[in-house]
From TrEMBL:
Gene3D superfamilies: Hotdog Thioesterase. One of its GO terms (biological process) is fatty acid metabolic process. Belongs to the THEM4/THEM5 thioesterase family. GO terms for molecular function: hydrolase activity. Residues 69-126 form the Thioesterase domain. It is found in: Cell projection, Ruffle membrane; Cytoplasm; Membrane. It is a peripheral membrane protein. Residues 1-23 are annotated as: Disordered. Keywords: Apoptosis, Cell membrane, Cell projection, Cytoplasm, Fatty acid metabolism, Hydrolase, Lipid metabolism, Membrane, Transit peptide. This is Acyl-coenzyme A thioesterase THEM4. It comes from Pseudonocardia hydrocarbonoxydans. GO terms for cellular component: cytoplasm; membrane.
Length: 166
């Protein structure tokens, strides 16, 4: 899967305050469908990796299925959105999804642990380009899906201006 990153984009270095590799990231918001501990949520767990990467695990549950016994494609895309969004730990600025493309390579069965690796591949101003891979059952398992995304860095006030807390 190719990602069109402009030639003027550079691959940034991690922010000096990025936690060390191996650090498990807490939920960025306890009410998050992706990483929070909500009933019916995804309960993804992300770990800081080397080289502008984050690894995320997702145990596919029965309530995540679309077709019988298979994860819903939108849930897999949501897992990528969360994993790719966790990359903000490397630039220490809030960012939101501007574009997300997912290519499905094989079915994701209910009960499997999906291993996602997300990486920052370039940045120009507010734009951050990322890629991801999802593998079945192990970090080196069969490739289930790939993703590319563009995130936009936003001011912290973005969430107060556009969201509500309930």
């Amino acid at each position: 899967m190719t990602l069109s990153v402009p030639g003027s984009a550079v691959r940034p270095a991690s922010h000096p305050d990025t936690p060390p590799p191996g650090t498990v990231l807490p939920a960025h918001y306890e009410g998050c469908f992706g990483c929070g501990d909500l009933e019916g949520g995804m309960r993804l767990r992300s770990t800081v990796g080397d080289d502008l990467a984050v690894t995320t695990t997702f145990v596919v549950q029965r309530h995540h299925q679309g077709a019988p016994g298979i994860a819903h494609g939108g849930v897999v895309a949501a897992a990528f959105d969360e994993a790719l969004g966790a990359l903000a730990v490397h630039h220490r600025e809030p960012a939101v999804t501007a574009s997300l493309q997912t290519q499905f390579r094989r079915p994701v069965p209910v009960g499997v642990t999906l291993y996602l690796v997300a990486r920052i591949v370039g940045r120009e101003g507010r734009k951050v380009w990322c890629t991801g891979e999802a593998r079945l059952g192990a970090p080196d398992g069969p490739l289930a899906a790939e993703a590319t995304a563009l995130f936009l860095v936003v001011p912290a006030t973005h969430f107060a201006e556009h969201g509500t807390l309930e």
